[in-house]
Write a structure and sequence with these properties.
The structure is a single chain. The chain is an alpha+beta fold. The chain contains five helices and six strands; from the N terminus they run αβαββαβαββα. The protein has one domain: CBS-domain (Roll), CATH 3.10.580.10. The mean pLDDT is 88.
């Protein structure tokens, strides 16, 4: 749908009083938005390998797991900028465990979207690792994932309203 058609449909839906965001949307579980498989690395992975992985997969974070596969940390593009750039001489010699965020906030897939957004907002981060009952990463959710989910649900409501109009 073209931008002007979308804008027209949004205005129409708003003038009709269509609820663009379902009232229970933020109560949905994080797991319901379709978890992305996390990219994981070991604590002794070099920064060169980590950065190459971020670039290759076009993502903003990697989860760091211990030998048991349990979450030990997260390495994000922000960690790279704030902790690595201008401070590390050789990315091939530095390891991720020295620059990762240790023991990051993590959640279970049953947590609500509203709770995850609140965590990210108050914590000042954009990614929440999703772990199972054994603290093994099973996914990762980003602010973008949540926004994309909300927009998809909103567009569904707009299209439904325009079809009945």
């Amino acid at each position: 749908m073209e931008k002007k058609d979308l804008l027209s449909n949004i205005y129409s839906a708003c003038s009709l009083g269509v609820q663009l965001i379902p009232p229970t949307l933020l109560c949905d579980s994080i797991g319901s938005i379709g978890l992305k498989d996390p990219l994981v690395v070991k604590p002794d992975t070099t920064l060169a390998e980590c950065i190459a992985t971020l670039q290759r997969h076009k993502v903003g974070s990697l989860l760091v797991v211990d030998d048991d596969g349990k979450l030990a940390g997260i390495f994000t593009e922000r960690d790279c900028i704030m902790k690595v750039m201008g401070k590390v001489d050789s990315l091939k010699d530095a390891i991720v465990s020295d620059f990762m965020t240790k023991n990051p906030v993590r959640e279970r897939p049953e947590a609500s979207i509203a709770f995850a957004l609140n965590l990210m907002s108050h914590g000042g981060f954009r990614h929440v690792p999703i772990v199972d009952q054994d603290d093994v990463p099973i996914g990762i959710v980003s602010v973008k994932d949540v926004v994309d989910h909300i927009v998809t649900r909103m567009l569904e409501a707009i299209y439904a309203a325009c079809e009945t109009d």
